[in-house]
Design a protein that fits this description.
mainly alpha; Multidrug efflux transporter AcrB transmembrane fold; 11 helices; about 0% strand; elongated
């Protein structure tokens, strides 16, 4: 510092006196602030925040970059760091990559179901529980004004996995029963066997994960709630929407036998 006016002083002597007072205040221990007591060329500026919400961190970072880009002298450079900055960047990376990850996972699930049942249409039908589960999670996040972070972002992956599992079970059962029963009798048999097992599994696991709501860590509580919600939505969508859609299509054409298709028998055997 060489300009006294920047610090509300009139002369360099006043500025020197102010610096001396700061040195006395710091008791000569400047190692955490500058790299050399006599001729420093690096300094550390620490900023303490009482609020580390992502919006607050984003505003602080943007204003800091804007200020230093125009205020720092030519030939000087600066870096912004700290644990809060690291967490903010990680959360931002997770959010930005989440959409791409979900789309990739949906494509893989569609491909696997299409291969299992030898039908592109069945592959799309199998995505119904997943899409509704993801939609329910989005609505819950928006309605509850919840924040997406490293923990809560895992709920999307779980929703995709659970939805695919329930969809495959329902589709396999529907194909097996459709060979010898009409739709109404088929639905009753489906609900009494596979449907009952899916509902028992979904609601028992959902109830177990709601215990996480009692956690003192808010992200863990949100994760437990969203997990339970995805289980319930996936199970209901699989048991209600998939049979409703299959009723509108030609099931005999949709679920051709392996001999008729002549390909990929092993995939069907794994799920029969």
């Amino acid at each position: 510092p060489q300009d006294p006016a920047k610090y509300g002083l009139e002369t360099k002597k006043d500025l020197q006196s102010l610096l001396s007072q700061y040195l006395i205040l710091l008791a000569g221990n400047l190692e955490m602030v500058i790299n050399d007591d006599l001729e420093p060329d690096k300094t550390l500026i620490a900023l303490q925040l009482n609020n580390e919400e992502k919006e607050t961190l984003n505003n602080v970072l943007q204003q800091s970059y804007s200020f230093w880009d125009r205020a720092i002298p030519e030939g000087w450079n600066y870096k912004i760091g700290g644990t809060s900055t690291i967490y903010y960047i990680l959360d931002k990376l997770i959010i930005n990559s989440q959409i791409l990850s979900i789309l990739g996972a949906l494509f893989l699930v569609w491909l696997i179901i299409s291969l299992i049942f030898h039908s592109v249409k069945v592959g799309f039908i199998g995505l119904i529980p997943i899409v509704f589960s993801l939609g329910g999670l989005v609505i819950a996040f928006v309605a509850g004004n919840l924040k997406l972070d490293a923990v809560t972002s895992l709920t999307a992956s779980i929703a995709i996995g659970v939805g695919a599992d329930y969809a495959i079970h329902v589709l396999v059962a529907y194909r097996r029963l459709s060979a010898r029963k009409e739709h109404n009798d088929l639905i009753l048999s489906l609900y009494n066997t596979t449907g009952r097992a899916i509902l028992m599994n979904a609601f028992s696991v959902a109830i177990g994960f709601t215990a996480l709501v009692l956690s003192r860590l808010i992200p863990i509580g949100v994760f437990g709630t969203m997990f339970a919600l995805s289980m319930v939505i996936s199970s209901l969508a699989s048991l209600i929407l998939i049979p409703a859609v299959l009723r509108k299509v030609d099931v005999s054409e949709l679920f051709k036998t392996n001999e008729e298709k002549g390909k990929l028998k092993i995939f069907s055997k794994l799920f029969n």
